């Protein structure tokens, strides 16, 4: 889809390093146009060391309304926010920030909600399920919180890094009554399997879980966008599982980001800092 | 014309205050697309007090290649340049800056060349002519230098502010052998009349020159873009003069800016700071 630009165009940027692969400039700009907004999302390639200066400078642009954040800036951009959702405070990370009426910056983290939204779009429902999450990094943490918020009956978390795995489990235990436990790569007995690791991006990667224990009643979701269908998801589909891929997550997340930037879905009412 | 944007899009910004009226985002973005470049020009609304911070931050964006400058930032942006053309040094102002291979910022001022280019597009040629310029401000100074560079036989400058008029005359005398003198609003005896003041933007404005002394052999040029044809130019056309308007200047200037940003017309070889 093509877009237009003129002197009155409102700006949104996406900050990342690298940046060329990001889909928000095309997707969000098209979504703004579809909504009849004279607005664009443009890419900004900025190194971690330069991020604070970039954000300080960009904030001086009176027609900059929003900032989308991708790797590796999600934690650093949280520090730029003057207010944020409880979810973002819990995660210490944001993937989107919008300018508030008083000139501040209000942050949110939609990665987890995007994953759950992508699942639901493919016929998965976390509520009441026994869930296994592989990966306790930035994406994994966001997904863990979202799965708990969505009402999973139980959440097991596996990560090769036991320190960050245990830290995440401990932090979740402080905010939810949902049982959160140490998981393993074995999906046997779980109803929902979520991969939040990069395992599957390269042909030589090991599989994140023991796919030989997949059963057709399981829902299998994955964050990987390249390849579009990871080997884990391919294996799940082969035996009849419902699945969601990184593209499903992104599609759901883009809708959430659009509503957030246009001011429709989140309020600053519950925000604190 | 519509344009596209994706993660690999190279950015150019135009800084101004106000900004909504500027034409470069549409015009330059379309020109980039026509040249097959994945590049955009987007507007940045920034107040004078915030300009240094904006420029410092924006410079950290690795995919920012160029900065177009409009009022009131042309003098302040000169200070941001690490190198500039002799023309920009003389004027102490730039209307465009591009990033150099070593990460610096190389500035140029095309307002005067744009005016001359607009004249030529409408059949005017400054070389050998007696020229009267009204207005010794930023645009007027740039046009004065360009007229001298283009080979006018003589240049007379009128400005209600005699201090800046005399300062410009003195500075021009230091760089050219062309006779430069104090002018008046009376165009009698001149072959080329250039208005570089805003007189004519509002219906109540006085005319910048005594139009009753226009003769059909005169070329009459004007920098005003709104209205598209100023009352002075209307009067000149009514008696058969060749004329150029602000839109002609902008069209010529856009072509110069495009070549500059794409690296085709200016070299840093002669630059100094």
Automatic annotation (TrEMBL), chains A, B:
Q: In which pathway does it act?
A: Metabolic intermediate biosynthesis; chorismate biosynthesis; chorismate from D-erythrose 4-phosphate and phosphoenolpyruvate: step 4/7
Q: Which GO terms describe its biological process?
A: aromatic amino acid family biosynthetic process; chorismate biosynthetic process; shikimate metabolic process
Under Gene Ontology molecular function, one entry of this record is: NADP binding
Q: Domain Shikimate dehydrogenase substrate binding N-terminal spans what residues? A: 14-97
Q: Which InterPro entries match?
A: Aminoacid_DH-like_N_sf, NAD(P)-bd_dom_sf, Shikimate_DH-bd_N, Shikimate_DH_fam, ThiF_NAD_FAD-bd
Q: Which GO terms describe its cellular component?
A: cytosol
Q: Give the record's keywords alphabetically.
A: Amino-acid biosynthesis, Aromatic amino acid biosynthesis, Oxidoreductase
Q: Which residues form the THIF-type NAD/FAD binding fold domain?
A: 130-165
| Protein name (record) | Shikimate dehydrogenase
